[in-house]
Amino acid sequence: MPPYIKNSIKKLAMPIFVKKRLREWKGIPDIVLIENTNHCNAKCVMCPHGKMKRKKGTMSFDLYKHIIDECVNLGIQRIQITGTGEPLLDPLLFERIRYAKNADIKEVNIFSNASLLNHENQELLLTSGVDLIFLSIDGFTSESYENIRVGLSFEVVKENVLSLLRGKKSKGNYKPIIIVGGLRVKGDASAFLKNNFCEEINKLSDGIWVGEHGDVHDWSGNVEGIHYRRVPWYNLPCRRLWDALSILWDGRVDLCCIDYEGTVNLGNIEKQSIRELWNEQRIKEVRGYHLNKQFEKIEICKNCFERPSWIPKNIERILDDF
């Protein structure tokens, strides 16, 4: 089925799933995004980290435990330990994962650029209990990769990724699920198709996602030079406002993961509960704007076209397989 037909079907179906999801909404987030640190060791061309003005730091373990304990009490089953930074720069990352799993959080996931996945960190990660690891790689050749992920070494990352995947296979474990994703840049097509690295990733990983430059969002217009293809349902409410609570390393709660500066402050997890934060007046106001298609009322939403699909993943997979 041609992509334009698939997207047309999704666009027609999406409002139905929006209404269904809102009817079933329980008043608590499905997932809590925890920024363990906003330090990063790369200067990626598609990331606003280099222009970020907010203070850099790492979340205290006491604050982290407070968040996890509250998630457990509310029945929240999913957390992501990654924000606007590289999570492996946090020396407490593995302890954080273990704490969450010991507290019976069902899904703990992280996103990493894989540059710090040396043998010691690979072993710690594979035995931490983490459920999902998304490794971000772009370019798939040394030249294209290092032009995008400035400051990182393609050869180091390549060896780290393959070593982690082989390490998981040697243990015979189902978990963690490891997804490798990134961009195939213009002019890189033949190299990608013949690339032994990609072939090996495809054999060893649990999934590989390869996008084009147009698949990368521009952080609500805050990164220049990115020509983002709008999703066909960009004028529908953003699902994140009903699904994902985003907590910065210092305890402040921002609107979503795209709000890297924390410009829309919803409160502080040290002073308010998750339920209070998720149902306070400011976020209700933003949800109302989205439901009424008044995206221009919120600066971070006005130029944002990174709207996740409301269609359940199992149904979306069926459509994508046609």
Written account of the structure:
By secondary structure, this protein is α/β, with parallel strands linked by helices. It has helices spanning 3-24, 61-74, 93-102, 119-126, 142-148, 154-171, 189-193, 196-204, 240-243, 274-278, 281-291, 299-302, 313-321, and strands spanning 31-34, 43-44, 78-81, 107-112, 132-136, 149-150, 177-183, 207-211, 244-247, 252-254, 265-268. Strands 8-7-5-4-3-1-9-10-11 form a nine-stranded mixed β-sheet. Strands 2-6 form a two-stranded antiparallel ribbon. Strand 3, helix 3 (93-102) and strand 4 form a beta-alpha-beta unit. Helix 4 (119-126) packs parallel to helix 6 (154-171) and helix 6 runs parallel beside helix 8 (196-204). The longest helix has 22 residues, at 3-24. The N and C termini lie close together (6 Å). The mean pLDDT is 86.
Protein structure class? alpha/beta
CA distance, first residue to last residue: 6 Å
Number of helices: 13
Share in helix? 25-40%
Strand content: 5-15%
Summarize the biggest pleated sheet.
Answer: 9 strands, mixed
Radius of gyration: 20 Å
**Backbone shape:** globular
What integer is the average pLDDT?
A: 86
Placed side by side, the strands forming the largest sheet appear as 8-7-5-4-3-1-9-10-11
Which stretches are poorly predicted, pLDDT < 50 over at least 5 residues? none
Number of strands: 11
SSE pattern? HEEHEHEHEHEHEHHEHEEEHHHH
